[in-house]
Amino acid sequence: MEGRKAGKTAFGLITRRVDDTRTPIRFLTNARRYGHSVDRIIIAYSHGVDRGVVETLQRQVKVDLICAHGDEYLHKSLHALGLGSDAVDALLEVPSWSCHHEVPYSAYRNAVLLHAILQGMDYLLFFDSDVKPSVLTELKDGLPQWQEVDFVGSHLAHLAKPKVLATTSDYSGYYIIPPMAFDGLPELLIGLGKELSLDYVSLCDIHGCLNLGSHTPGPSVLTDKLLGGNLGLSLNQPWNLAPFFSTVYEFDDQCIKGRGEDTLLGQALVLNERQMVDVDLRIFHDTFDEFPTSPDITRKDIQTRVYYACLGWIGLNPFLNWFLSTMRGNEARFKEEMKRQAEGLSKGAVNAARFFKNPQFESLPEALKVSMATLPESIERYRRLTGGWEKLINALTPGELPTETDEEMVDQPPMAA
After folding, report:
1. Which uninterrupted H or E stretch holds 310?
2. Distance between CA atoms of 290 and 285, rounded to whole angstroms?
3. In terms of residue numbers, what domain contains 251?
4. Total domain count, the chain
5. Residue 48: how many other CB atoms lie within 10 Å
6. Angstrom distance (rounded) from CA 241 to CA 398
7. Could you tell me which residues are beta bridge partners of residue 40?
């Protein structure tokens, strides 16, 4: 490989329960088939561990288990670096655990990221439990056609280049928005912050919202869109990285986890002069857990999945819009965009409820109001997190990270240098 010398590579996986060997073994087997060595797999979990599963995995590779809501090893390791309790608490904070026993997606990913850095890993490759290292190239007469691909090699070929900080790609498989068409769909997508999907979804009668990939990746391109289940990070210069962040809010007596911690990371790293690369490796994602069955939006279980995805996007959007407007020094943009999204939801949600014959969707505008009300708390939590991250980086690599005044930290999102 050109660029940096190949170093230690870790797989990162996040899950509620460590109870399945299939996905990690599939990726380990794939790596070895293409001649790659994986130092360890780091699994952040929240709700339990099947020791038999762990023992099976340990026969294949070193396994590091990290509890995503208060891991003792991470606490001790961070304190051993000289970080104070405030910084450690900010890095490992999980505010939704005590009241709801839920962990934001970012807390899982940060647990993996922190552990990988502390263990001296050079590269960290994330994949999710519902993906596999093969590309769906065709669905012929209802039968999927697969092509196994070099997952590790495709990411490392770019991560080994000196200026590349992150690698990613989209997926093959069904898109998160199932085939649908109704009056008000454009407004609904605007309200969800998904208007860029409108042209694609509007052609669902042609492609069925099914994405295919090529067994031969096309040319890589620069991107700011990161996808957490198909993501590579270079850890050689941690001062160029930033932590993941995602929101949580309470709606209808439930803890709703904001989606998009990968989206936010991509925007955070835009402030960095290093490169993020789309490697065009569309590994398969079983979006609705029953591939190759096409998602039917008239089914209540599919509607419920889409409804909670909507709540997750709504949880992200106020913070994302605040972040982008602050990063660009345009506060007026935040107010304009939130007004536009609220207006889109007010029409789109009613029409969606009528089309689906499902009154759940009528509550989406109210969910946005609740999410907006939690924005100040999210901003404060984010500032604590990034403040703790800077202290971590200074402890790991003193002198590498430029210092900023407190006033500068308030005026702009404190991101990677």
Report:
1. helix 300-327
2. 11
3. 9-178+212-297+381-411
4. 1
5. 10
6. 15
7. 10, 62
277's enclosing H/E stretch is strand 275-278
Q: What is the pLDDT of residue 372?
A: 98
End-to-end CA distance of the chain: 27
pLDDT at 252: 96
On whether the CB atoms of residues 78 and 46 are closer than 8 A, the answer is no
Amino acid letter, 355: F
Amino acid type, 55? E
Walk along the chain (417 residues) in steps of 10 and give the mean pLDDT of each run: 66 98 98 98 98 98 97 97 97 96 98 98 97 96 95 96 94 97 97 96 95 90 96 94 97 97 94 86 97 96 97 98 92 95 98 97 98 98 97 85 38 33
Largest CA distance in the chain: 62
* 6 CB-near residues (< 8 Å, 6+ apart): 122, 156, 160
According to DSSP H, which parts of 34-164 are helical? 51-58, 72-80, 85-92, 97-100, 105-118, 151-159
Residue 416 is assigned to a structural domain of this protein: no
Say which CATH number the domain at 105 has. 3.90.550
Strand 164-168 relative to strand 275-278: parallel, antiparallel, unpaired? parallel
